[in-house]
Amino acid sequence: MKRLLLLLNCFVALHLFAAVDYNVKDFGAKGDGKTLDHIAINAAIEKCVADGGGRVVLPTGTYLCGSIRLKSNVELHITPGATILAAPSSMKAYDESEEWIGPAYQDGGHTYFHNSLIYAVGQENVSITGRGRIDGKGLTKKDTEKGGNLQGGSIGTGDKAIALKQCRNILIRDVTIYRGGHFAIIVTGCELGTIDNVLIDTNRDGIDIDCCKYLTVSNTKVNTPSDDAIVLKSSYALKKPVMCEHIAINNCVVTGYKLGSLLDGSYIPEKVNWVCGRFKLGTESNGGYRNIAVTNCTFMYSSGLAFEEVDQGKMENIVVNNITMNHVHHYPIYITTGCRNRGPKERTDVSYGGDITISNVIMQDVDSLAGIIVTGMPGHPLRNISFNNIRIHYRGGGTADLAKRQYREQGTNYPEPKFAKATPAYGLFARHVDGIDVNHVTFHTMKTDYRPAVMFDDVKNASIIDLKAPDVEGVEKIVGY
Q1: CB neighbours (10 Å) of residue 246?
Q2: Which residues of 291-311 are buried (b: 16+ CB within 10 A; e: fewer)?
Q3: 252-257-263 Cα angle (round to 5)
């Protein structure tokens, strides 16, 4: 009898503590792709919250939706065969953008969250999981009437697929996002989070991590033919400079194929845009970046790695390791500081960058526009930059007159190598740097390049060990060392 009572008590305990599922169809969702279902989904979420939390489940079907308001202790689970389809703006199904009082130094996409397909503000223990799909068909897209520009922010329609602001302990796992709008995923001012095994094929930015700490992005594939793939930012969205720190990016794939061709398996390279794919810090950089690790990632038909601190923050303690790239647009690696200073005029800080190490990188078919770029500012150098075990295969073909070209100071310019145009060295151009180590670095060129392989300008405490580059008659291999 005692044993029977013990088993009965265990059964009751397991029942009491078992996760509770809330099927959205029990709340009136149709899943027919025609009926607006976000009202029913939000009702399921509210019931889940009232009961102390659980899992809101979307079974097989297509759920036409406006704004879904995610709440604390709720897991939104999109099962295989289920799709959340963003409603067109004509249906007026999205929440109005929140009011912003005072100057907005950041872009509109970083200012407004309520007009998103799925959003949460100030919540904790929120999750979006499942092998289903989020299709942002009705979200922000290219405005063909304005020259193909990508719009975003508060424009009276759904803007982003997933937007989380000032949330704690977040999880996004296993979902597929197609046509994610301004941002497929944006997390701002969030702490403790994981984005894992997510597949994104989108028309603008893939993942933006802004003013966050203790976040991991892993095992994720991001196709962004028209903008950045994985981006860290530290904007003024929280009305103060907040550092983005303790972020780990690992085992990810970045591509620049035509929209949808990663998902359907056709893998058609997109025509080179001003940017296509890439991992980036910036350009929104008021708070800065610290303790960032990027490891074991691969890139195809993408722009290179960009580290940009131009808004008076600090960029430090950055480690990049085990990276492969093929078909690289415009530049391989770009590290810069500048004085765009988009923030309150009373700030007196100067942008700073230092202690950045990039190791074990192989790049094939790299654009001949620019080599590795490392540029600080006059009187404010980048410090302690290290390149180890790097092998880059450039297309080459640079002319001798480019070696005499005066490369622009970053200053207040928008930090983008395409706009600065060709560097006077094809392999590595460094200026205003105090402490740079170049160890076991090899440059190849498909065509003869008549620029130096390496050029230093206002560089102190430099070390070059085992640099390999083609010998070109009449061209000095290293200048300024």
Answers
A1: 17
A2: bbebbebbbbbbbbbbbbbbb
A3: 70
Write the DSSP assignment of 143-193 as a string of letters. EGGGTTEEP-SSSSS--BSEEEES-EEEEEES-EEES-BTEEEEEES-EEE
Per the DSSP assignment, residues forming a β-bridge with 396 are 447
Beta pairing partners, 183? 205
DSSP letter, residue 278: -
| Residue labelled with tokens 């940017």 | 275
Q: How far apart are CA 385 and CA 433, in angstroms?
A: 8
Q: What does the pLDDT look like over 142-153, one tens digit per residue?
A: 543 344 444 556
* pTM attached to this predicted model: 0.93
User: What H or E segment, with its residue span, contains residue 12?
Assistant: helix 2-17
pLDDT tens string 289-301: 999 999 999 999 9
The beta strand positions in 53-135, using DSSP E, are 54-58, 61-65, 68-69, 74-78, 82-86, 118-121, 124-129, 133-135
Peptide bond into 283 cis (omega under 30): yes
Q: Are 340 and 283 in contact (CB under 8 A)?
A: yes
Among 118, 129, 20, 24, residue whose Cα is nearest residue 77: 129
